[in-house]
């Protein structure tokens, strides 16, 4: 299928090439497996997942999608990396978890599924696209009034350059080299503004501490590296 303009083909190819390692908890995506309980905790602080219609944008191999489905949500996982989606589908067959995976662009999907979801998640994805603002607009279009949009990304700080790129990729080999590009990271103030321009109201933030040396993974108030942001769509959006 033709890709949307809002896609970096090099990013898609990079993740497709790593698809076979996605579900290895001790492999190159170990960090995602460690962070996933933190993402789930943050989501469930705001909204129960039971019987909720959830869209997982940039679902990759389905780590978050499966967790949300196991918590009772009806999950649609959306991505443009075909190999990753195939891995996600095969893993769901193995585990018996019901997730509907779709190869599609979020803008196109949101147009045909406007205000259909109770919740939209977009985790570790915004820093991999040319136009993250357009992604937020699509998420806002897809969620129902009163619904939630949850995002996570990396802060464009000196600390994130040192720890999330240099140390994580080139010193400790925690994630595949070339996964992150510091100039694409997004400051919390920028993400808040993107949400506002998409018609969303920022409700809460949290940092994610990822310390493989101390084996410490927890939510905190430090937004200088990895952080989460919860938005809500007003019940009566301004016209």
TrEMBL record:
S-adenosyl-L-methionine binds at residues 39, 58, 79, 123. Its EC number is 2.1.1.222, 2.1.1.64. SUPFAM superfamilies: S-adenosyl-L-methionine-dependent methyltransferases (SSF53335). GO terms for molecular function: 2-polyprenyl-6-hydroxyphenol methylase activity; 3-demethylubiquinol 3-O-methyltransferase activity; polyprenyldihydroxybenzoate methyltransferase activity. Pathway: Cofactor biosynthesis; ubiquinone biosynthesis. Keywords: Methyltransferase, S-adenosyl-L-methionine, Transferase, Ubiquinone, Ubiquinone biosynthesis. One of its GO terms (biological process) is methylation. Transmembrane segments: none annotated. Pfam families: Methyltransf_23. InterPro entries: SAM-dependent_MTases_sf (IPR029063), UbiG_MeTrfase (IPR010233). Coiled coil: none annotated. It catalyses: a 3-demethylubiquinol + S-adenosyl-L-methionine = a ubiquinol + S-adenosyl-L-homocysteine + H(+); a 3-(all-trans-polyprenyl)benzene-1,2-diol + S-adenosyl-L-methionine = a 2-methoxy-6-(all-trans-polyprenyl)phenol + S-adenosyl-L-homocysteine + H(+). It comes from the Bacteria. The keyword S-adenosyl-L-methionine applies. Belongs to the methyltransferase superfamily. UbiG/COQ3 family. O-methyltransferase that catalyzes the 2 O-methylation steps in the ubiquinone biosynthetic pathway. NCBIfam families: UbiG. This is Ubiquinone biosynthesis O-methyltransferase. It comes from Thiomicrospira cyclica (strain DSM 14477 / JCM 11371 / ALM1) (Thioalkalimicrobium cyclicum). The gene is ubiG.
């Amino acid at each position: 299928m033709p890709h949307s303009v809002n896609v970096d083909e090099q990013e898609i190819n990079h993740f497709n090439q790593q698809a076979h390692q996605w579900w290895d908890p001790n492999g190159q995506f170990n960090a995602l497996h460690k962070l996933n309980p933190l993402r789930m905790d943050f989501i469930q602080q705001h909204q129960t997942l039971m019987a909720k219609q959830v869209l997982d944008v940039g679902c990759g191999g389905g780590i978050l999608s499966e967790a949300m489905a196991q918590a009772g949500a009806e999950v649609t996982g959306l991505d443009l990396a075909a190999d990753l989606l195939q891995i996600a589908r095969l893993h769901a067959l193995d585990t018996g978890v019901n997730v509907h995976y779709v190869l599609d662009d979020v803008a196109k999907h949101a147009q045909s599924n406007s205000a259909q979801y109770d919740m939209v998640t977009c985790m570790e994805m915004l820093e991999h696209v040319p136009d993250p603002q357009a992604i937020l607009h699509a998420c806002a279009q897809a969620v129902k009034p009163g619904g939630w949009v949850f995002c996570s990304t990396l802060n464009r700080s000196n600390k994130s350059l040192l720890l999330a790129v240099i140390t994580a990729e080139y010193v400790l080999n925690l994630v595949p080299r070339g996964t992150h590009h510091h100039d694409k990271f997004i400051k919390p103030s920028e993400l808040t503004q993107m949400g506002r321009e998409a018609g969303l109201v920022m409700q809460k933030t949290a940092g994610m501490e990822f310390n493989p040396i101390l084996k410490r993974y927890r939510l905190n108030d430090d937004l200088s590296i990895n952080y989460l942001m919860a938005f809500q769509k007003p019940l009566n959006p301004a016209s």
